[in-house]
């Protein structure tokens, strides 16, 4: 636990160093594309009390370089072939650097896979001297009983979500309050260590320093949920290529995140298998003609599939759009059903507002919002990421929700557990134990 | 498993798309190139260093340095020695013949010479060292003529001292040495150590004594404090230290009224203003003796 605490703190220091230098790279390692943005932090004006500012606090940075490359060697949002992924990252980073005409050394990365799992933690302490100090906040966070999440898991996010003093709950910032008992709820997100290690290794091989790591479900929620949705409760569903991320927000905090290992690539492979065409053709047919609602008109709309095998019959094949929809719809339904199951398991139906926002590249299938409304509930809308300064038009689509969210994460990270000082009483306990051990070893 | 190595691309084969990813080396080089310090070093530092090395390497050889210096000197000389800049003649105005000769002898210039090499200020200082020259003006005139305009000192008195006879101007500055008093009979004679510092005073006294000017043989600066006027027939007028000119005027007045100097007296002592004293001569032979003595003093 302390190791992780230290490594996360080290990342925070790295982020501060990057801010000082003023240039930081954003790297979104997805299954279908790898996007790299170069941000320049210009006027680091003092953040206001409510975390807002001009342009909702995003005027601090500007995108000066952007590049996207087709992802290689990534499956389900996890690194599959290291060398391929490394090369793809190099391609993206180099192109973005070239556009920015500057060198970046610090990178903040996000990924969608690595099997994220959420835990709700609760901790409680007695307040020694009535008033809550920052030290007390650190103590109560340290007092949270960490569940046994098993071998090979690591904590990616640990957000303090809620504080309660005596019987007053729902405090956002308990410092300065007076009471006897301080309780905290914390949201912990764990991921597979191996998957993240692979990604870190790939980035290290590109001579880049990691200044932060985030789950793409979380950051796409930051980018595509508007403020009242984050406040009142909403789920952001980031439908990527290989994995569908899912994050639930309430009171501007993420309280749940999960990833379904299904995505747009599965739809493509279904088309490829069903129509017997190569994957590239299937992808093209999906993006141009795809849909999930068949109408009578679609029976008459014939799609040239084409091939170049030399056999006339095979090369002149045509398929109606209805058939295409018939292939795509079950898979999309399956994805949404999975999401539904996860939402149910998370208790999404208990939230006061059950807004669902679909984003990510696969959410651009025409008619998806109507299909999602049938499966997930009535409050469904398609989300696009916020606009940030200097972002090229090509990178403003739904597919770039997590990239843009990562920019916001880089500019204004929420307080996490490791942003508080280690509680003071932990030090003497450990050194006492070390002294005891020394005595035992030597006498 | 598919081969881990990339397929070999044969020359001229276009079917296979090349991997768009940069190699690690290319990636690193590009990052290095995008580093601002490195960029500045390459764009400014390297050319500067290259220039320094090339120039320094060329100049490291003694012979090359000398050759460059020589060619510069040659160029300079070729410009200086163009006929437009050459001075071929020297014209001296306002100087008498011996002074002009002296100037020509003194000037360390052998004509023809380039006007760039002439240091007119130094030449002028040299010319003004000559006692007979009060001031000199030098300029190079059109046509390669070095024009020297000289103002000579005007001798005002002759000063007899231990070494001989000197001509002095009105300020007491030496003009020339005279071998013979008769060469300049128009100038009055003064004598005595330190008399050259008091030429102005002497001239005033002489001006006051003009009525008896034809009888004056000279002035003697006595004991470095006062003047004596020496007349012919061994007569002397002893003047006071202070206000000698009124004393002279009084003597002149006495002379005009009484024809004092026509009488047999040796000296008129005006040193005490309240008590002018006349020393009378003895009879006959003693007058002769005194004349011989006085002749020695005045140098005649």
TrEMBL record, chain A:
Lineage of origin: Bacteria, Pseudomonadati, Pseudomonadota, Alphaproteobacteria, Rhodobacterales
Superkingdom assignment: Bacteria
Domain SHS2: 24-224
Subunit details: Self-interacts. Interacts with FtsZ.
Subcellular location: Cell membrane
The family this protein is said to belong to: Belongs to the FtsA/MreB family.
UniProt signal peptide: none
CDD domains with a match to the protein in the record: ASKHA_NBD_FtsA (cd24048)
Biological role stated in the UniProt entry: Cell division protein that is involved in the assembly of the Z ring. May serve as a membrane anchor for the Z ring.
The protein's name: Cell division protein FtsA
UniProt keyword list: Cell cycle, Cell division, Cell membrane, Membrane
Organism listed in the record: Albidovulum salinarum
TrEMBL record, chain B:
Main location: membrane
POTRA domain ranges (all copies): 85-153
Annotated compartments: Cell inner membrane; Membrane
GO biological-process terms attached to the record: cell division
Entry keyword set: Cell cycle, Cell division, Cell inner membrane, Cell membrane, Membrane, Transmembrane, Transmembrane helix
InterPro entries: Cell_div_FtsQ/DivIB_C (IPR005548), FtsQ (IPR026579), FtsQ_C_sf (IPR045335), POTRA (IPR034746)
Annotated membrane topology: Single-pass type II membrane protein
Task performed by this protein: Essential cell division protein.
Protein name: Cell division protein FtsQ
Protein's gene: ftsQ
